[in-house]
Amino acid sequence: MKQLYEKQLTEVKAKLDMSERKVSELEQERHRQHPEEERWRVLGRERLLQEKKDTEVLSEALHEMKEENRLLKQKNASMSRKKEQYESEISRLNKALLDALQKQHPPVVGTPPEKGDRSSIEEMRTQLEVLKQQVQIYEEDFRKERSDRERLNEEKEALQKINERLQSQLSKLSSQTKDLLVQPERPSYPAPLFLSPCVSYEGCGMVVHYPDPRVHPVPRRAQKQQEQCSVRFPPSPV
């Protein structure tokens, strides 16, 4: 009878050792998985910071281009006003030249025109040519400024599209990072062992307790009490 008890006790201890090994393997697996999750969290935070830096750089470049565009518009408006003033001055000089030519009496044959009239007409023609050249220069500058403004507008639109795309990616990354940071740890356990929390051999007069890997470990004091009453032999027959 004692040999039977010892055999049964050995089997139960073997099952208990197997359960303890399973629990130990699960703990090791959980510790192996934890650094991997931490690495992904760090990578997510680093990528989020990089996206924020890229967005800040693009926002600053966009602000500078807007400021440059504003200055070009001011310069363009100033040049447009000057062009209008020069055109008005050219019209006035043309009218004055025409009036002077109309007021001039036709010279008598063989008589040279008056010296004062000739100098006045030549002076007006010179002023007219100078003004025409200035208007031409301002027209060229005006066309160049308009071309630069159109180029800046195209670059600004491209930067705005890139900025919107980065803002969308930044929002998605922020959401994913928050979900990753608040996600609880879920260690993967193997299929539960179909063992009762307590193997009872009441017919043999023996009750053996062993820990279940699916439940939390009991305190040390309760575990000692459990070990003291784990094996009960019946009284020896008289």
From TrEMBL:
Gene3D superfamilies given in the database record: Nemo cc2-lz domain - 1d5 darpin complex
Region feature Disordered, mapped onto this chain: 18-37, 69-88, 216-238
One GO cellular component, as annotated: cytoplasm
Domain NF-kappa-B essential modulator NEMO CC2-LZ: 79-173
UniProt cross-references to Pfam families, sorted A to Z: CC2-LZ
Domain of life where this protein originates: Eukaryota
Key words of the record: Coiled coil
InterPro entries xref list: CC2-LZ_dom (IPR032419)
Example GO biological process: regulation of transcription by RNA polymerase II
PANTHER family xref list: TNFAIP3-INTERACTING PROTEIN 3 (PTHR31882:SF2), TNFAIP3-INTERACTING PROTEIN COILED COIL FAMILY MEMBER (PTHR31882)
UniProt-recorded name of the protein: TNFAIP3 interacting protein 3
